[in-house]
Write a structure and sequence with these properties.
alpha/beta; single chain; Glutaredoxin; 4 helices; five-stranded mixed sheet
Length: about 130
């Protein structure tokens, strides 16, 4: 029987990761980041750290987007302090950085704080491109 992974992709194997919470950001690790590349839905990843003021300011918008786009986009967060190897691999030089992945590829990137509307426009643009 197929199971649903951390990000909702059907993959034909039992997963050890907890299923994603409906309307909440998924908290990624370096080990679960690969699920982003396998997701059936576009994935917005917020690369952040607890000491980063702009990251903390952006947090409520990311939470809102997870609720607003539930079922259409997976919203995820990755702690830069705990998983720096992922940031290095992606060439992320500063936080907050938000990246939208679709079909395993990066399709949009924003570095620094952004109002909700800017993030909505990026997500709407990705969704309007179809699949």
């Amino acid at each position: 029987m197929e199971s649903v992974s951390l990000l909702g992709k059907r993959n034909g194997r039992a997963d050890k990761a907890e299923p994603r919470l409906v309307g909440k950001p998924v908290h990624l690790t370096a080990a679960t980041f690969e699920d982003v590349l396998r997701s059936d839905l576009p994935v917005l990843v917020d690369f952040w750290a607890p000491w980063c003021g702009p990251c903390l300011m952006l947090g409520p918008a990311v939470e809102d987007l997870a609720r607003e786009y539930d079922g259409r986009v997976v919203v995820a967060k990755l702690n830069a302090d705990e998983h720096g190897e992922v940031l290095e691999r992606l060439g992320i030089a500063g936080i907050p950085t938000l990246i939208v992945f679709k079909d395993g590829s990066e399709v949009a990137r924003h570095m620094g704080y952004a109002p909700r509307q800017v993030l909505r426009q990026k997500l709407d643009s990705v969704l309007s491109q179809g699949g």
